[in-house]
Design goal:
Helix 2 packs antiparallel against helix 14 (374-402). It is globular and about 70 Å long. It is mainly alpha-helical. The longest helix has 37 residues, at 333-369. It has one domain: Growth Hormone, Chain: A (Up-down Bundle). Helix content is 79%, strand content 0%.
Length: 472
């Protein structure tokens, strides 16, 4: 394989900033926007999320297969990255500007449902081809680690921008003098999130354009097979390591999403000061940045498997520390932030490792099934993340419904709901470490692409590729 210059790898990774601006706004702040700004019932959201995932179960593998058989002068990935980024930017802006339609309540619910589903579809258009490019940059473990680390670094930057600055920017754009995010009116929240989403959407298109312009596709394998949902389902079903990966990755990702999703409610309702979230997220973002050092350092004396287990252990330790601080030391925000920093180092490294694992699973699928389904396999990354978010949403909204949590008033005016506050605190501190422990157990017991077996797979796939190239 031709060596890809570092500048091209960086140009590729930059695209993750825009993707994660959209991703972060949707997964970390959409719930707050829908419940507190649009006054959407949590019962409706409890129903909507699983229904949207049913469609994603069809749409994501279909899109992966379509990418696999794309053949244009620009390649098979870059056209979809650009197209997906444009459409996802449009939908993101519409989703966070629903209040501007001045529609009746029933119409608002319909618009939320439509844009919610469309966001997932358009995100898939860009996300699958973007992450599917990684195996085309390198075949060996260290090369894939480097590309994945670069992409995840920029991904973390996008997430960091959202988590640290959203509350500040939303208040700035809300147009309510002297207000804080927790005291903004529904109209102020709508204005703030609406304008911020437009900026994030523009950035999504801009950074996607950098990726498309600065990269080349010289080693992607094209497929001429037409899409068949039955065949796609068969590829997924017969790749036991892909199914194992989806299970443990979904559970661990859900633990992370639980923190990012419920933290707004924790600081808003339980602590009564949403500005504390920015301080908490700042330390988490520092941890995400530091996580980029984990893979290069561990590469020198540890296998990817050992590094992944270390990452899960660090994340679990950080979350347990958060639980101790939250329940026994009054939830001191600095102490919480330090524990979250430790957890974020583990989570960030975990995400890099998961991306590399998918590249290995592509090789495993070719080795076992005889066909290389690169984009179809990587489509499961986005799908499992959506499933993780759905699981988080089901847990969160079920708790809100069970405790009769009231979104109709602001935090200052709402009568304290102790049952809801206890549930929010439990989801903030107890659920994440439990999920990480479960994920760790599944990974340790059922994932087998490592050591001699991994080398055997890579040698066989490389030999097959060299034989095909010699015939051309």
């Amino acid at each position: 394989m031709k060596k890809v210059p570092l500048s091209e790898k960086i140009g590729y990774g930059v695209g993750a900033i825009g993707l994660d601006l959209s991703y972060g706004l949707f997964y970390s702040y959409l719930s707050l926007y829908l419940t507190n700004a649009l006054k959407i019932s949590p019962v409706f959201l409890l129903i909507l999320a699983p229904l949207a995932r049913i469609w994603d179960g069809v749409n994501d593998p279909m899109m992966g297969s379509i990418v696999d058989r794309t053949n244009t002068k620009m390649g098979k990935y870059r056209p979809w990255i650009m197209t997906g980024a444009i459409f996802n930017a449009i939908v993101l802006s519409l989703l966070f500007n629903i209040a501007g339609f001045n529609a009746k309540t029933a119409v608002v619910y319909v618009l939320v449902a439509v844009f919610y589903v469309l966001w997932g579809m358009t995100n898939t258009l860009a996300d699958i081809p973007f992450w599917s490019m990684i195996p085309t940059f390198a075949t060996e473990e260290k090369g894939r680690n480097l590309v994945s680390t670069i992409a995840r670094t920029f991904s973390g930057l996008g997430q960091g921008i959202v988590s640290i600055f959203t509350s500040i920017i939303v208040v700035k754009f809300a147009g309510e003098s002297g207000a804080k995010l927790e005291t903004l009116s529904a109209q102020g929240l709508s204005r703030g999130f609406g304008k911020w989403s437009i900026i994030a959407s523009a950035a999504l298109i801009f950074f996607a354009m950098i990726t498309v312009v600065s990269t080349k596709e010289t080693s992607s394998v094209k497929s001429g097979e037409k899409f068949s949902f039955r065949k796609a389902l068969g590829v997924i079903r017969h790749n036991d390591q892909l199914l194992t990966f989806m299970l443990f990755a979904m559970i661990s990702n859900c633990g992370y999403y639980m923190t990012s999703g419920i933290s707004s409610y924790y600081f808003l309702q339980v602590r009564g000061d949403l500005t504390l979230q920015s301080k908490f997220n700042l330390l988490g973002s520092v941890g995400s940045v530091l996580s980029i050092l984990v893979i290069p350092i561990c590469d020198k004396f540890m296998t990817n498997r050992s590094t992944y287990r270390l990452s899960l252990s660090a994340a679990t330790l950080g979350y347990i520390g958060m639980a101790v601080v939250g329940y026994f030391f009054g939830g001191n925000v600095l102490a919480l932030g330090i524990c979250y920093l430790i957890a974020s180092i583990g989570i960030g490294s975990m995400f890099v490792n998961q991306t590399v694992m998918l590249a290995d699973i592509v090789d495993y699928g070719e080795y076992k099934l005889g066909t290389r389904n690169q984009s179809l396999t990587f489509s499961m990354k986005g799908f499992l993340q959506k499933m993780a978010y759905t699981l988080q949403s089901i847990i969160m909204y079920s708790a809100f419904v069970a405790t009769k949590y009231d979104f109709s008033k602001g935090a200052k005016e709402t009568v304290v709901n102790h049952a809801a506050n206890n549930a929010i605190t439990f989801m903030m501190f107890i659920v994440p470490p439990i999920m990480l422990v479960i994920s760790h157990i599944i990974f340790a017991g059922r994932y087998k692409i490592y050591g001699d077996y991994k080398r055997e797979i890579l040698d066989a796939v490389t030999a097959k590729k060299q034989a095909l190239e010699s015939e051309q």
